[in-house]
Structures are given as structure tokens and as C-alpha cells.
Design brief:
- It contains seven helices and five strands; from the N terminus they run H-H-E-H-E-H-E-H-E-H-E-H.
- The protein is α/β, with parallel strands linked by helices.
- Helix 3 packs across helix 7 (177-196) and helix 5 crosses helix 6.
- The relative contact order is 0.19.
């Protein structure tokens, strides 16, 4: 036997989940997210990529590290950034430790992170990008196409509706290294464009 829940209780529960627990509706569209009040400005873009010091932040999602490594190799070869190091988060479903983000902001000029390929890891990637940008570091977060809608919802909820992302084909966890390289080639120019704020 089902029990009906009246609309007042549903509305209260929804507000509680959003306001108190910080949950986000991943079905929001880009127009709604764009109405969100900005929370801090974007970090200044890089004047140039050649010679820039960057880091790859692997969120430990399956195949995120190998994809980022391919992106890093292409940024080095095609755009002349300094050799990129790889850092890793402890848990993909949570934001990175603030101390780790402080360290990245101190030691590097830009960050490329990812991959948002599920609900919780997408939320964590967006949060990391927002927090790094707030520290003055241009950051690009890569999300799979299936979870771009969730990334848009989260950037609005985190007060940065202007934050840009780079999509990659979904899924990434069970694809070959050659396929990861192909996808990295397809997206690296978009990563570069976001980092310098114009066509690289």
C-alpha cells in the first residue's frame, strides 16, 4: 500500500536537501544555471602557454590519469608548456583537500583536472575548479558528455555560472589507451583556449 506525500512536505524536503545538505539538481539547464549569482571572479587567463608551469590533477576516476597524461603531452608538444607533473586526489567523489589546492596554487600557473564521469566525481571536479580559480589559478575541468548537464548545474550552484568546461566522449573507463589519445587530440585545443581566453 502506497502512502501519498502532500505537496507541502515535498517542498519542505526539497528545500532541506538543497539548502541544508547542499544537494544539486543535475537536470537544470544552462539558461537556469546562468541566472545564478556569481561567487568570485574568474582567475586571470594566461598571457601565453609557451613556458607556462602547469599540473594535471587526476581525480582517480577510471582512466582519468591516462587521459590527462595524453592531454599534458599534447600541451607540451603543441603549445610549449613546461613538462607537466601529475597530482592525484585521494577520493574522486569529494573535493580535493584545501591544503592540496593551496599547494597547487603556490607552485603552478594552471591546472587541468578531470574526469567528471559520474554524479559525485563531476561535482568534485567542478568544486575543485571553482576553488582553484578563486585562488587565482586558471583551471580546466574535463567532463564526459553524459555529465556535462550535471557540471553546468554544479557550476551554477557553486556560484560560478561562467566557468567553462571541456567535454570528452563518454565513457572513458573501459576504452583503450589509443582511444584515449584520440580523444585527447580532439579536445586539447579547447583546453588551451580556456587557459588563455582566446583561440590558441
Amino acid at each position: 500500500m502506497s502512502t501519498a506525500i502532500d505537496d507541502n512536505k515535498k517542498e519542505w524536503a526539497t528545500q532541506y536537501l538543497v539548502d541544508k545538505l547542499g544537494l544539486v539538481d543535475p537536470t537544470v539547464n544552462a539558461a537556469d544555471a546562468a541566472k545564478s549569482k556569481p561567487n568570485g571572479a574568474a582567475a586571470p587567463r594566461l598571457a601565453a602557454l609557451a613556458g607556462a608551469r602547469g599540473v594535471l590533477l587526476d581525480n582517480t576516476k577510471g582512466n582519468a590519469g591516462p587521459l590527462l597524461r595524453h592531454v599534458g603531452d599534447l600541451l607540451e608538444k603543441k603549445y610549449g608548456v613546461r613538462p607537466l607533473t601529475m597530482e592525484r586526489k585521494i577520493v574522486y567523489s569529494r573535493p580535493a583537500d584545501p591544503a592540496q589546492l593551496d599547494e597547487l596554487a603556490r607552485d603552478y600557473e594552471f591546472v587541468v583536472t578531470g574526469v567528471g564521469a559520474c554524479g559525485s566525481c563531476t561535482s568534485g571536479c567542478v568544486r575543485d575548479a571553482v576553488d582553484l580559480e578563486a585562488r587565482g589559478i586558471p583551471t580546466v575541468a574535463i567532463h564526459t558528455t553524459v555529465f556535462m548537464n550535471s557540471a553546468i548545474a554544479h557550476r551554477g550552484a557553486f556560484g560560478r555560472p561562467d566557468l567553462q568546461f571541456v567535454p570528452v566522449e563518454h565513457p572513458i573507463a573501459a576504452v583503450s589507451d589509443a582511444e584515449l589519445e584520440r580523444r585527447a587530440i580532439a579536445l586539447v585545443d579547447d583546453v588551451a583556449t580556456i587557459l588563455i581566453g582566446s583561440k590558441a
